[in-house]
Amino acid sequence: MLDPTSPWTPFQPQRQWMRPLETPAGRRYRVAVSLPDGPPPPDGWTSLTVLDGHRLFLAVAATASALATRPEKTGVRPLAVIGVFHDETQGSVEDARALDFTDTPCPEPDWTRPSGGAEAFRRFLVEQAWPAATQAAPLDGDRRALIGHSLGGLFVLETLARRPDLFARWISLSPSLWWRTPAVDNADDRLLLGYGEGETGRDMRRRIEAWAAEAGGEGHVPRLRMAAGADHGSAPFALIPEALRHASGA
């Protein structure tokens, strides 16, 4: 704990804002927005919505800001980053993730966390999170992307299968295909599928590679990227630049 009389002060990155939101059912979230410097394009900013904001938002936002300064070199154009956070004050974040990111019960009989609330979470994104973000900045509704990791990656695939109209670009990192293997018949190159070289738990790497080979059918091939040397926890951070290029339309 810092001495309150020291010259240290709380640090807040510039051009980032956050607000709380509550659903009609009483579920609480926070939504953060990180905006590029300068005026927005005529149609608004391209945007990337980041699930698991407590883990990934700051890393994605900082990398987006740094790489967008040289888009001709990095392939990352300026874009707004929207983070969706579970509110820690209402209980376990891991319980909240398991509920919000899954459409079906867990296949493992000893699983104790809640599940099956993904449709309600989709309504929250569409009816509350996205409108709140558009109040903070002009955003292009035709150029928005979604990124999720692990159970969040499974949510991305399930949402692509059920509501392909919601986002123009999709990024699923290390999706939890051990939970369920969704049938996605529109998994073309709008989808970036990423994983770590060292993801051996629950046969993750083999499952993801097999799903990518079969997804979408003939003529529909997702982009597949492997992070060399990365495990399940580090893979999303290693793949952030690739994810940002994908969200930018590169």
Q: Can you walk through the features of this model?
A:
InterPro entries: AB_hydrolase_fold, Esterase-like, Siderophore_Hydrolase_D. Belongs to the esterase D family. GO terms for molecular function: hydrolase activity. This is Alpha/beta hydrolase-fold protein. Residues 1-15 have a biased composition (Polar residues). The chain has 250 residues and is α/β, with parallel strands linked by helices. It has one domain (16-248): 3-Layer(aba) Sandwich (Rossmann fold). It is 33% helix and 22% strand. It has 8 helices and 8 strands; from the N terminus they run βββααβααβαββαβαα. It has helices at residues 53-67, 71-74, 93-100, 118-136, 151-162, 204-214, 235-238, 240-248, and strands at residues 16-22, 28-34, 45-50, 80-86, 139-149, 169-173, 191-196, 223-227. Strands 1-2-4-3-5-6-7-8 form an 8-stranded mixed beta sheet, with helices on both faces. Strand 5 (139-149), helix 5 and strand 6 (169-173) form a beta-alpha-beta unit. The longest helix is centred in the middle third of the chain and has 19 residues, at 118-136. The chain is globular. The N and C termini lie far apart (44 Å).
